Amino acid sequence: xxxxxxxxxxxxxxxxxxxxxxxxxxxxxxxxxxxxxxxxxxxxxxxxxxxxxxxxxxxxxxxxxxxxxxxxxxxxxxxxxxxxxxxxxxxxxxxxxxxxxxxxxxxxxxxxxxxxxxxxxxxxxxxxxxxxxxxxxxxxxxxxxxxxxxxxxxxxxxxxxxxxxxxxxxxxxxxxxxxxxxxxxxxxxxxxxxxxxxxxxxxxxxxxxxxxxxxxxxxxxxxxxxxxxxxxxxxxxxxxxxxxxxxxxxxxxxxxxxxxxxxxxxxxxxxxxxxxxxxxxxxxxxxxxxxxxxxxxxxxxxxxxxxxxxxxxxxxxxxxxxxxxxxxxxxxxxxxxxxxxxxxxxxxxxxxxxxxxxxxxxxxxxxxxxxxxxxxxxxxxxxxxxxxxxxxxxxxxxxxxxxxxxxxxxxxxxxxxxxxxxxxxxxxxxxxxxxxxxxxxxxxxxxxxxxxxxxxxxxxxxxxxxxxxxxxxxxxxxxxxxxxxx
Length: 486
Fold this sequence. Notes:
By secondary structure, the chain is an alpha+beta fold. Helices cover 30% and strands 17% of the residues. A hairpin with a 5-residue loop joins strand 7 and strand 8. Homodimer. Decomposes hydrogen peroxide into water and oxygen; serves to protect cells from the toxic effects of hydrogen peroxide.
């Protein structure tokens, strides 16, 4: 009989900490030796056949990115090399939690996965329509998504599981506030913004690094659906967003987004973190624009529909691990997990040679020693399938990433800052920015979603809303009281 009181790995090894990844010091990066993390992510990626385990319902289109402003002082990436330069792109939009047949208008974050086919390889900026996420550490990602899927006994969606998880994870409050605001049900894909969400980095020709966040602002204007209209469309036109995107492009009404970047110098990090109490690499937080203004970079336009949905959208395999010289990562713990998890998911879902498919194939020359496996349609011919070791030591060519490292400090271990972390200020700031009618819709949406969950969970979650702003907690409590009395 299974002992559900003791958490173990699949091999029966006791798990010492299921809340925090093993990192080099409190900030990270994440260590590959954390087998519990790796096993969780690997098993999670293999839980669905054949659709994506997350982001299953999606739409895609091709387009172009055009540079409008010079950012070469920050990055040597060739796609930004000159104002006016264009790069072919592919963008896949999606809902996150639903199955492939779910409705486009469900309350859910929207995936915003953008590929740039550059002359130095593919750059995949795999983000969402929100600048934040529910978690700061990838070790909790499989647990979180399980709560968004179906109950293992009833095979029904479970509001109790959803709110139980969130109420025990106050770091989720900022994203929960976004999700249940008007932005949780965007009016199609053309009328929403996109974000890289994570902290990334830019490296210039001198080898200098800055940290950055990517923003894509819709030129079509923000439009959202109210809860009633989103629910109506889910029943009458569940493919609403797919239809809207495809028809707009087919009719020559090409959607566009202005692309911006926020930049934080390495010498600014410590002072900003000390002043705000927030980590620059925490995915549940934003960088306020007053501290780090958005810098214009270029314009993204979608102007061509795929000819074959399965070949070009369903088999599109993007990963944040795909970057080009002049771009880099950061110690963001969620990003570190995604660098492994996404590529591993594509290896499982599409196959070990998925990068040979037309939608995934780089538009530049490719040479490597990978061979064989399923569907090896471009298998290297007679070229040598190994790279010899240089007995006298390597002589770097200057090509490739060649990015500067960042300093790793501290003892490797599992670090939990949740007892001291500020999970409430930014959520409260967002609430206070809303108009009175937007606040009313927010608390109404939350109350409707929480009314069926046990009172213990409701009270735990109400305490989080109240810490963010007393009026936030009072508003939800009042709506809940009205609903429960009916």
